[in-house]
Design goal:
alpha/beta; Aconitase, domain 3; Aconitase, Domain 2; 3 domains; 17 helices; 19 strands
Amino acid sequence: MKQNLYNKVFDRHVVSRLSSGQYQVLIGLHLVHEVTSPQAFALLRERRLKVRFPNRSFATVDHIIPTDSKERHRPLQDSLAEEMLQAIEKNTKDFGVSYFGPESGKQGIVHVIGPELGLTQPGMTIACGDSHTSTHGAFGSLAFGIGTSQVADILATQTMSLGRLKVRKIQVDGKLSPGVYAKDVILAIIRKLGVNGGVGYAYEYCGEVISNFSMEERMTLCNMSIEGGARIGYVNPDETTFEYLKGRPYSPQGADWDKAVEYWRSIASDADATFDDVVTLDGSSLAPHVTWGITPGQSVAVDENIPTVASFSESEKPLIREALEYMDLQDGQKIEGLPVNVVFIGSCTNGRISDFQEAARVVKGHKVAPGVKALVVPGSEAVDKAAKALGLHEVFREAGFEWREPGCSMCLAMNPDKLKGREICASTSNRNFKGRQGSPAGRTLLMSPIMAAAAAVTGKVSDARKVFGLK
């Protein structure tokens, strides 16, 4: 039987079959950050264990680090954040783990720096104590988020127990219209399949639309796989993948590069591979999407109305009513025209250089609407440097945006970047849960960087295609 990538890579990393029916699986790359690692390192100390393979773990700080340059001076104003920063500095030093701290030139969101450093490679198993580790699947790896106890397991053994997933192929064909991006594709997929539709599955993304995506677009797509319930989302490696990785600091070099590419080609799904399910979408029919509710599955195209409660099944209606009440919206109302208070362009979903290039291209010559606070937060120090070399920071500043230092910022809001009260934020991040952006009553609308730019300059949810004349 011909195999898909998931099963090829999974089989190559199985160490043993466990009595539970699960498998002990070798983890090729372990990414570490300051939030989920302190307890894991403490457990190692308690049991007098070492990190088994310190050269396979890499750490950075991203969630708690302030993005306002004035607030990054040590000690940090937030005593808990300073404590967490000191902990990861000490833990990585004591256990011999590579650490990319602020001003190293390599600090940033863990799911941004892994790929840009060449740490993330096809055919790997990758784990991190963060939900959106599925991002790395864009390279043809099996990448998944883990809990704190599993962080300790991997540090100590470089393995973890896993059950085998089913695999769903999601094929997106056609050609995207101007103004429609990877963020819109994944929001449309989650809307179609639901936030629990991927439970027990790995998602393989393919089709003409996906093949034409850049690596950064593929990362955006895979990043939100977890929001659809899937443990893993991936794209088969191809020439686009290899071109992106070539010459990066941790990528293979010389003859090793040629051998690596040969292997990477071999782990792609076979042409006649079998899947447990197949879903198709017509990319040419997609429009820019915006979430209106309290899950990433509650979205509509910008030119659509919010669905009515009556259009849902009886089991779904309570959540729909809860979402409408929390968001202070009426069923059937237009999403276009909804006022926003804050705009956030950044995160591990849309904090890469191409995201800022696209947004800067359209905001040039415009001004942020009065009363709107607009933040642009690079996903890494490398992204910040590249953007400044292109003058993108000046384009945003001239338009009235704040250009910040690298970090997670207003995604989980474990730093000073938070919503206040009932503010509504047009956000390029990945979750719109209640209170997600730092205020128990704050409201989040997920959208692409272009749509966020349109919201910034109009002060409301707007169709970027109309605002910027995209044809």
